[in-house]
Structures are given as structure tokens and as C-alpha cells.
TrEMBL record:
Domain (HTH luxR-type) ranges: 138-203
Protein name: LuxR C-terminal-related transcriptional regulator
InterPro entries to which the protein is assigned, alphabetical: CheY-like_superfamily, Sig_transdc_resp-reg_C-effctor, Tscrpt_reg_LuxR_C, WalR-like
Keyword check for Cell membrane: no
Listed Pfam families: GerE (PF00196)
Keywords (A to Z) from UniProt: DNA-binding
SMART domains documented for this protein: HTH_LUXR (SM00421)
């Protein structure tokens, strides 16, 4: 069993719980070239802690290498869990659930038992489809921005005021205000805060 995640209490607790129940579990170190050995032996299971920024990508790597993959994630981050299921995760366990539930899920996976009902999987996949559609809509709106407008939006996201942007970018205040109005129109929002939120959310979901 491989447990992949940040070296924190959750990851360590999962490893200890699996070892206490007779599994040969080990923590997998994460780096830029993380790879999973292909499964050519008795069924193993990879447990991925979705607290890792690259967690969804690691799920895809593990699945491609033939590993049944279980993800552990925040109940509040449903879109990230949905992305992991879409990447091929066989099961999901909330990080707040008792460890014996996780151990039992790993046991079922290790002997090839189904651990996620088709209806639940379809619900996750539908959530992922909707989330991706929303991201694509926001990206299309962001793509309408000129290079200068996008730079103004990024400066707003970093906390700069219009006056600061005018000074740093050597622009007239009226020009900065015109750019901001154009940004709001193109993103179909009524406030700078909403425009910034769209930019941040699209970037986060893209990552």
C-alpha cells in the first residue's frame, strides 16, 4: 500500500492505521518526478491525500500505472474530489471519517470488491462536468480581455488600487478607470471584487 500526501498528521495517521491492521503500508515521498511502479503483483492500493496541490494529477498517474486509487479529501472541496473521481479514483473517503472506515475501504479494494456505487460515481462525474463547464465559461470571458486589461486585473487581484496602477503602469487615471469598466463589462460582473473572484477561482480550478 502506498500513501501519498503531505507529511502531516492525516497522512501519518493513515499509514499507522493501515500498518496496525496488517497492511504493508508506506508513505510515498512527493517530488516533481513522482512516479508509481506498475502493478505486477498482488493487488495494491494507493491512498492519495487531496490536500496536496498536485493531488488530482497524482491520482491520474497512479491509475495509469494500474493502481486502484482511494482519495481522502475535505468534504467542503467537492469539486476537487469530483476531479479526482473523473481522473479514475475508485473511491473517496472524507478526511473527517473514522480511520476504521478508511481501513475497511482499503481492504475491500485490495481484494477487488466494488467500493463506489455507480450512482455515486455518476453524481461525482456530473459535478465535475458542471464545474468544468463553468470554468470554460469564465475562461472565455477572461480571454476577451486585452493584454492591458488583463494586467490591470492581475494588479487588482494583488491588492493594488487604481491610483497605484496608474503610477506603476505609467497610465492616466482615466485610462485605468476605462480599463476597469471594460473588465467588468466583459466579465459580466458589477464589482471589482467579483471580477477578482472570477480570476482567482478560474486559476484555482485550472490548477
Amino acid at each position: 500500500m502506498l500513501v501519498v500526501g503531505p507529511h502531516d498528521l492525516v497522512t501519518t495517521s493513515v499509514v499507522i492505521a493501515l500498518q496496525a491492521n496488517g497492511f504493508a503500508a508506506e508513505e510515498r515521498e512527493i517530488n516533481g518526478t513522482c512516479a508509481f511502479p506498475r502493478v505486477d503483483r498482488a493487488r495494491g492500493v494507493v491512498v492519495v491525500n487531496l490536500d496536496l496541490p498536485e493531488g488530482v494529477g497524482l491520482v491520474a498517474k497512479a491509475v495509469t500505472s494500474g493502481w486502484p486509487t482511494l482519495v481522502v479529501g475535505q468534504q467542503t472541496d467537492r469539486e476537487r474530489t469530483a476531479a479526482a473521481v473523473a481522473a479514475g479514483a475508485a473511491a473517496y473517503v472524507p478526511r473527517s471519517c473514522p480511520l476504521d472506515v478508511l481501513v475497511r475501504t482499503v481492504l475491500h479494494m485490495s481484494v477487488g470488491r466494488p467500493v463506489m456505487m455507480a450512482k455515486e460515481r455518476m453524481a461525482w462525474l456530473e459535478l465535475h462536468r458542471v464545474a468544468r463547464a463553468e470554468v470554460n465559461t469564465r475562461r472565455r470571458r477572461l480571454d476577451l480581455l486585452t493584454d492591458r486589461e488583463f494586467e490591470v486585473l492581475r494588479r487588482l487581484e494583488r491588492g493594488q488600487k487604481a491610483a497605484d496602477i496608474a503610477v506603476d503602469a505609467v497610465l492616466a487615471m482615466s485610462t485605468v478607470r476605462t480599463h476597469i469598466r471594460s473588465i467588468l463589462v466583459k466579465l459580466e460582473v458589477n464589482s471589482q471584487q467579483h471580477a477578482i473572484a472570477i480570476y482567482r477561482e478560474t486559476r484555482r480550478q485550472g490548477e
